[in-house]
Amino acid sequence: MNIDELLNDYIDGSINANKINELKELLEKDEMTAKKLKALKAIDVLMRTIDYEKAPRDFSEKFAAYLAKNRVIKKDRKDFVTPTVLSLFMVVMLCILAVSFYYSYLSINDTEMISGILLDIFNGVSFIAGNKLFHLLGASVSFIALTILYIMNETHRRFRKKIKDL
Amino acid sequence: MSKYVMKNLSDIEIIESVKRGNTADYTMIVDRYKDRAFNLLKRMLKNDMDAEEALQDSFLKAFRYLNQFREEASFSTWFYRIVYNTALSVIASKKRKIEKEMTSLEDMPELISYDREIYATVENPKDYLMRLIDKLPIKNALVLILYYIDGLSLNEISLVMDISLVNAKVLLHRSRNILRDLLLKHNYQEEIL
User: I want to staple A15 with a disulfide (CB 3.0 to 4.6 A). Which of A19, A39, B166, B168 is the partner?
Assistant: First the structure.
């Protein structure tokens, strides 16, 4: 290690005890080394007292105005496409259902037949409502469906974030 | 949010808030870093107007690329890097040459005549040092400013300037030695300490 490096490392506080002893010996022997060390210390002390040159006072205000003027601050765009498509889909499905109910009602003339169908539906619902196996099955299917939906949503969200970060 | 709470927020907390959509919180980052960044730009560009323009540009770039900021590094290092690169772009756009860094006084003999002129006109050692730093090649001046005025570690300086840690250390030592040699010429250290 040369003297200049040793002196600079000493100023930076990055030398060990052995090197400090080596430096002490050098300082005793050589007056120039002592002068160099004093000059480096002077620079170190003085430099630490120097303050920043301040930015113009109104910079923050000017910058905020610039951002607003240039519309750099983007408002979060709301996603209208997905709800619109979903709503349309629901409306179409409801229309199809309504039309099919209307035509099936037209084809049934006998009121007794309608009562029979309604009674069958009622019996079916009562059977499902009273059966514990169906409860368990329903809960399991719902749980699986919700989990799948959550995973799909999370994957989609991460994918969108990845695309945005590119 | 009260001013007290805002002042105590860390850079990361503010950035998280900006990322969540509270874009107005970015002004806290601007207030926190504007002086340090301006100081650096002024030293690099040597002109108030260019420095202010580059300052605005730097904050704008940081804002636009905030999503790319990864929290493993500190925000200050990431931002200083943007400031440094912005200044280099301004220098390049003005077709100014980025001087090669000095290794010793022999590399820039004109610095000795500048030194005589500065020494004859300054009133105190602090001004003398700052005016000398302004005459140093950009990289020599920058490493001193980042280390002493901005208080960056050598590791952070190496990240900002995109050089190795060893090179950052060598550059700091060489720059300090140049000032030291000039100080010794006038025996100025005796007045300072």
Answer: A19
